[in-house]
Amino acid sequence: MRRRTDSSIDSRINTTADITIDDARRKTLFISDLHLGPSRPDITDRFKTFLAGPAREAEAIYILGDLFEAWIGDDAVGEFERAIAVGLRALAENGTRLAFIHGNRDFLLGGDFCRRCGMEMLDQPRVIELYGTPTVLLHGDQLCTLDHSYQRYRARVSQPEWQRRMLSRPLWFRRSVAALLRGASRLRNSKADSPAMDVVRDDVEALFRESGAKRMIHGHTHRPFRHAHRVNGKNRERIVLGDWYSQGSLLTVRAGTSADSVQLHALANDAKPDI
To answer: Under CATH, what is the fold of the domain 21-267?
Structure first.
């Protein structure tokens, strides 16, 4: 079972030829921080609408972490998770390529569930050649380096040995731990306006230099925006995806260099974006 093992932004940058996107099919979508769970049927309905509509028009979709509110192991999959997998599998069988990067809520999501969904699990940071633009993808929590207590926690739970021990525990124990972690996360989110909850510019620019990317896409902070950076005298762009708690956040990237080839959308409950 492959799980998240990266613990810092200075880990090896992953880049492979098979990740290159073919220009011929025109459109790639990026989403993150859906936080799907049985307690939020409104988010689930929005996601199902997305899968049945806009998602089918894309050649590829990248899910950049926190697809689920919590994940305690592939052996704990229930009716809710199976239903999500069915929707994703149908999309994959329709010809849309699916790729997944772990977030801080679903870092134990493993290869078994990815195969059930028909999606590829990617290491991070991952560089892809997106319609001619080198683009680095990650969840984004590794860039929030002013939050020292979180980074210590992240370093611990990213260790393969810690994950093996956790996955060997009974389900009741893992559910209890997940509940505690969700409580701690809600407490951190109550301080969302604090600078410690956002990425650190120096770390962002270090990752641009290390990866050689011209564009960066991440989630985690729930602060959707398109940021301009100047790195080694060259312009770089960082796009932050929003969460799905109150609305869907969707990034569309098209082949070409027109002004609307990159669009960051907010999906209303009953609206389909012009993608």
So the answer is: Purple Acid Phosphatase; chain A, domain 2 (3.60.21)
Q: What is the dihedral of CA 64, 69, 72, 73, to 10 degrees?
A: -50
Domain positions in the chain are 21-267
Longest dimension (CA), the chain: 53
User: How many Cα atoms are found within 13 Å in the side-chain-facing hemisphere of 164?
Assistant: 4
C-alpha distance from residue 175 to each of 23, 52, 57, 180 (Å) = 43, 31, 37, 9
Separation of CA 208 from chain center: 18
**What would you report as the CA-atom Rg of the chain, rounded to the nearest whole angstrom?**
18
pLDDT score at 47: 95
Q: What is the pLDDT of residues 147-196, one digit of tens each?
A: 999 999 999 999 999 999 999 999 999 999 988 887 776 666 656 666 66
Going from the C-alpha of 48 to that of each of 9, 52, 84, 90, the distances in angstroms are: 33, 6, 8, 11
DSSP code of residue 24: G
pLDDT digits (tens, 9 = 90+) for 195-237: 667 999 999 999 999 999 999 999 999 999 999 999 999 999 9
As a three-state string, the secondary structure of 121-174 is ECCCCEEEEECCEEEEECCCHHHCCCCHHHHHHHHHHCCHHHHHHHHHCCHHHH
Is 60 exceeded by the pLDDT of residue 273?
no
